[in-house]
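Field notebook, page 350. I keep forgetting to write these up properly, so this time I am using the form the group agreed on. The chain and the ligand, pyridoxal-5'-phosphate, are recorded exactly as supplied. Prediction of the bound pose follows.
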Amino acid sequence: MLSALPRNLVDLFSDTMTRPSSGMRKAMAEAEVGDEQRGEDPTTRALEDRVAELLGKDAAVFLPSGTMCNQIALAVHCRSGDEIIAPDNSHIFTFEGGGSSAIAGAHSRAVPADKGVFTGAAVTAAVRPPMRHAPKSRLVAIEQTMNLGGGAVWSMTQIDDVAKAAKTHGLVMHMDGARLPNAVVASGVSAKQMSAPCDSTWIDLSKGLGCPVGGVLAGSKDFIAEAWRWKHRLGGALRQSGILAAAGLYALDHNWDRLAEDHANARAFAEAAAAIKGVKLVYPKTETNLVFLDVSGTGKSAAALSDAILAHGVRIGAMGPALMRAVTHLDVSAAGIATAGTALRKAVAG
Ligand SMILES: *Cc1c(COP(=O)(O)O)cnc(C)c1O
């Protein structure tokens, strides 16, 4: 945590670093609002309808964060003692404070995965036998795109393969769609198509879409009715949330297609970084907006390099002793990317 960040920082720390643009702020200021807990906020309802349609589901619910989208989905689908199948490095298992066990009471079952993408055969192998002493396999979760898999995109073939195994074994399928918009823009496959095999699916508004707050979870009518109970239970029901939902509607109109720029910027940065002696790309193919660097060949730690480039006005997070992650987003321009490449080169040489 830094007390004072440099002015004009090129911030590649995360796509959560975006600030609402003036157009978005104007939309927020002008939003029509009401009491959301009572279903009386027209802007929130409009956003929910829009996302339900976008993801091809009956209904949707606006939530304060993506983490709450995951946790509520797991709580609706799973009973205490049920088992969740996902990769060890999934956001659900790694970055949500153990919520799947603390809230849903569910057990975690890690599947082997390549860049976070796994197969139907891996799901089948992870399913517990129907024995009294085994936990009950209940849900399989995929992450689109896979954060700790370098922003890898699940292809439709891969999604369908897992969905088929899920169906065979009577599992519910959930999609963590924090960066589903990036996957859609990168692949040309629609959000609706990608979500079709999933019982629950969501998009984050506060990542690449550039909103200050929120996620929208979608599923069947019954699923969303139960999700609403959890939303209340966890204190996530809101009041005049149209102020926030207006940002979401604005983002769907203005910030979706432009994600292609972030992907081009990520590729440019990856190329610049890979040309630096001692720096290696962890994932040679940059599919979306995440670039992971292995800096073990530089003789410097990731933390030391992260500090050094900050002095050059660039922030890239250290994710491990020799691992760095750069994330492109709408507040980083092509010029910023050039600055970042130069800063990294100087930091490695210095
Ligand atoms: C960021 C993220 C989340 C959580 O979203 P928040 O809005 O930050 O709570 C969940 N899954 C993945 C893959 C993410 O990258």
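OBSERVATIONS:
- The longest helix spans residues 259-274.
- The two ends are 24 Å apart (CA to CA).
FOLLOW-UP: compare against the apo run.
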